[in-house]
TrEMBL record:
It is found in: Lysosome membrane. This is Probable lysosomal cobalamin transporter. The keyword Membrane applies. It comes from Paramuricea clavata (Red gorgonian). Keywords: Cobalamin, Cobalt, Lysosome, Membrane, Transmembrane, Transmembrane helix, Transport. GO terms for biological process: protein localization to vacuole. InterPro entries: LMBD1_LysCbl_Transport, LMBR1-like_membr_prot. GO terms for molecular function: cobalamin binding. One of its GO terms (cellular component) is lysosomal membrane. It is a multi-pass membrane protein.
Length: 363
């Protein structure tokens, strides 16, 4: 028995709507944060597509959970259309292939398309042709291709099982290794690469989250400078930048072209000047708003919110330390992922969640 069309409609039509929303969000996000004075259509479209595919990969998780849970009834038995093991396995394989396809596209963008488009944009110059830009971009992109090849190669060998004890000859071990790679169809290399990228992303998220949780409360308590002081500081920085730009351009008066180093420095100074001009414009717009004085009334609430975030950060840190100590002393060990079936220490976050559950529906 095949999968009912109603199941596919309930799963894939909302997912198509989510894909459209993700695409619109990616378009707005990239267009908002890009430099409109120095942007190209090719790099913009590439960034939008890359962000869209990455978010779609994350959106596959709830769809996967929905489709798998939809196979069973409320008593835990499989529905009639999912009772056949062959049909169910085929359906699950299709979901797995969708994951692998999206992961492969993410790796392709990360190690080939995005580096190529980045260096293609950096090679932009008045006297550089499109062919020269592509050659220069490809030259630097080769480094990323080599890195991806090494990671995929390591991923093909590292997760493999050890040969059986009766396989002692070198030729037999090599044949066993070839058979393992053929059997996995490259899944081990792909999952290893995605796991490595996930680890790097997790480190970045941890770093930025820790920094944000420590800086945000302090910024709220400290407050911000007045518009007058901010404008004075911006004007001083702009004068310094304009002086440096003037000295750099006067250095090449009468000469035909700048050196590569000075041209790069001039471009960086001009970028900083544009950012300062943009901030100056925002300050002028904020100064013209009639509600600017109303923010003074919210200053006590801002301080209280900062104190609340400090206490929240301390609560999370203490809970993490207690959990780490508890797992180090009473867990099942590294072979079981430091699983802690019976926690011995009281975790403050768990207690807060239990008390909050009495007020709101929080599990």
């Amino acid at each position: 028995m095949g999968i009912p069309h109603l199941v596919l409609i309930h799963g894939w039509i909302p997912f198509a709507v989510v894909i459209f929303i993700i695409f619109v969000f990616s378009w707005i996000y990239v267009r908002y944060y890009q430099d409109h004075l120095e942007s190209e259509m090719s790099t913009t479209i590439t960034a939008i597509i890359a962000l869209t595919i990455t978010l779609i990969t994350s959106a596959m998780v709830p769809l996967d959970i929905f489709l798998v849970s939809y196979m069973k009834t409320s008593d835990g038995t499989f529905k009639s259309w999912a009772a056949n093991l062959t049909d169910r396995s085929s359906f699950e394989d299709n979901i797995s292939y969708t994951y692998y396809g999206l992961y492969a596209v993410v790796i392709l963008f990360l190690f080939l398309i995005l580096p190529f488009m980045y260096f293609y944009f950096e090679e932009q110059d008045d006297e550089v042709t499109c062919k020269m830009r592509m050659c220069g971009a490809m030259k630097y992109t080769i480094v990323f291709i080599i890195a991806a090849s090494i990671i995929l190669l390591v991923g093909s060998f590292v997760p493999l099982k050890h040969p059986p004890s009766n396989v002692t000859q070198w030729d037999d071990k090599l044949n066993y290794l070839k058979n393992e790679i053929k059997t996995s169809h490259g899944e081990t290399a792909l999952t290893f690469t995605i796991g490595l990228l996930t680890f790097v992303g997790m480190i970045s998220i941890i770093s930025y989250t820790a920094y944000g949780m420590s800086v945000l409360p302090l910024e709220l308590i400290k407050g911000y400078r007045s518009i007058k002081d901010e404008r004075y500081s911006l004007n001083a920085k702009r004068e310094t930048l304009q002086t440096q730009i003037g000295l750099l351009t006067d250095k090449y008066v009468g000469k035909r072209r700048m050196s590569t180093r000075d041209r790069s420095r001039l471009s960086k100074l001009e970028d900083e000047e544009r950012l300062l001009n943009r901030r100056h414009g925002r300050l002028n717009n904020a100064d013209m708003k009639c509600c600017k004085n109303c923010f003074v009334l919210f200053r006590p609430f801002q301080i209280a919110l900062g104190i609340f975030f400090i206490l929240l950060a301390l609560l999370i840190v203490i809970s993490l330390v207690i959990t780490v100590i508890d797992k180090a002393m009473h867990s099942l060990g590294y072979k079981y992922g430091y699983s802690l079936p019976d926690p011995r220490f009281v975790n403050p976050v768990n207690k807060v969640m239990l008390y909050a559950q009495e007020v709101i529906m929080l599990s």
